[in-house]
Design brief:
Elements (H helix, E strand, L loop, with lengths): L1 H7 L10 E6 L6 H15 L7 E6 L10 H9 L7 E4 L3 H11 L12 H7 L11 H14 L2 H9 L3 E4 L2 E4 L14 H6 L2 H4 L8 E4 L8 E2 L3 E3 L4 H4 L3 E6 L2 E6 L1
Parallel strand pairs: 1-2, 2-3, 5-6, 6-8
Antiparallel strand pairs: 1-9, 4-5, 7-8, 9-10
The structure holds manganese (II) ion.
Length: 250
Amino acid sequence: MLGWFNKSRPSVARVPDGTRLYAVGDIHGRDDLLDQLLQAIGRDAQSARDDARRVLLFLGDYVDRGLGSRQVIERLLRRPLEEFETIHLLGNHEEAFLGFLAGTPIAFDWFKYGGLETLYSYDVPIPRRPSGPSEMEALRRQAVEAVPAAHVAFLQDCKLWHVEGDYAFAHAGVRPGVPLERQQADDLLWIRDAFLSSRANHGKVIVHGHTICERPEIRPNRINIDTGAYASGRLTCLVLEGVERRFLHT
Ligand SMILES: [Mn+2]
């Protein structure tokens, strides 16, 4: 039994020595949960060594669905845990939001997955049923006026991926078989089945969100921490230190 256990045991991934890392899953406009979780992270971090490097990483999908998208971005811009190195990754919802503001036609689909709630949070008057190019263009112009330049700059500055030791972080995952440096944005932001069903070793353990799971999914090659906060009320944070893994959640 012991032999079997040892044989199937995955190799042990670690973050760089002296680092405690907090990775936060998909927030989707739930500023209330973000507030609670950041307080929990702040309390938790008090147990780290004084000279520890504290890293706070967000996996993207800050906006849409929940009603507090603007408030989430404001809170992230305020850098609530200022002693932390903070990394913001881009999610597909941020990409769609930016695309809408820029007038990218395909981004008009954004409304099908939560964009109206984001505009609502910026006090953009929402027509009962936005339809037709001229109405969409009018809505876009109002949105451009309503969204502060600092918010647009924040979204544009979000990274596509990040590496810490044996872990890599990306909103949706990676395309199996493609080195991290050559991954396409479309895959990093949107991929599902080809990544989720893959048992391949991606070189790093991939920490991701994007696909809702009831509780964090831990596989040898990936960890999913999107616990569907906007509907479930559960916003999840993965804590990594040395070879240790644990979770905080609302
Ligand atoms: Mn997503």
